[in-house]
Specification:
- This protein has helices at 14-48, 55-69, 79-99, 102-121, 123-128, 130-138, 144-168, 196-213, 217-248, 256-292, and strands spanning 4-5, 11-12, 174-176, 179-182, 185-188.
- The protein is mostly helical.
- The strands form two sheets. A three-stranded antiparallel beta sheet has the order 3-4-5, with helices on one face.
Amino acid sequence: MIVSVAAGGEAKPPRLRILVQAPLLVGGLAFAWLYWEPFATLVWDWWRDPEAGHGLLLGPLSVFLMYRSGLATERRAQPLLGLTLLAGAVALRITSALAAEQYTMRLSFIGAAAALIVYAWSMRQLLRWWLPLALLVLSIPLPAVILATIAFPLQLKASAIGAALLHWRDIPVQLAGNVIHLPGRSLFVTEACSGLRSLTALTSLGLLMGGIWLRYPPLRALLLIVTIPVAILINGLRVFLTGFLVVFVNPALGDGFMHATEGWAMFLAAFGILGVITWLFARGEGWIRERNRPVEAA
């Protein structure tokens, strides 16, 4: 009879190995049955909802980052902790289903996946995959009530920045909430132009760049915080540029294809700014490491 040899040298029959792995197999099947609906609706929202479209990139990217990072060399299954976390995730899943709340239901999906990782490979492995898991959390669309609460202040801020820059260029302008009155035309900063999409995308980019190119958690957190004012300022600049082109070039530039192209150009500019900030932070980390490096004796 063919037997397998464990790391300690003790032979284990194939049937015994199957029995040992059976709980993980059953857990995986139960996970697929319980979370198929939240996963399917999440992918559908990625596809059809412009506010959630970044998930089409973040989802596959997270899987790739997990594959690239691989398994930790020093890992040890923690079944008790994993089952405890899994019980909490399942309880959240059931409660969310009763309340018909999609966001927490999808969060419980990631929580259950994290619990299975701990069950099979330990908390060390979960920490090793912190970046892809965090990107998965960001790929979940926020509830509509939260989006509306965030979007309106962003509309007002973008309108205020755009109007101030137009006034600085000596263009007659009157601001009324999120409406900018210009000579012969008014610009209405809608929810789609609030900068919420660019803020979500830049937050994901800031997390990704910090996780890949920075080593110190404080600098990673600072980079993530910096993405917020960058996104707000860039969107205000977009409003200013739209008003400038409407007044001095062509009123048709205030909407349509050219307006969308202008938004993409502003996003690329924001991405470049974040890249420069990340590079500066990385240089600062190198300087810190050089200063803390012990001096070798002559």
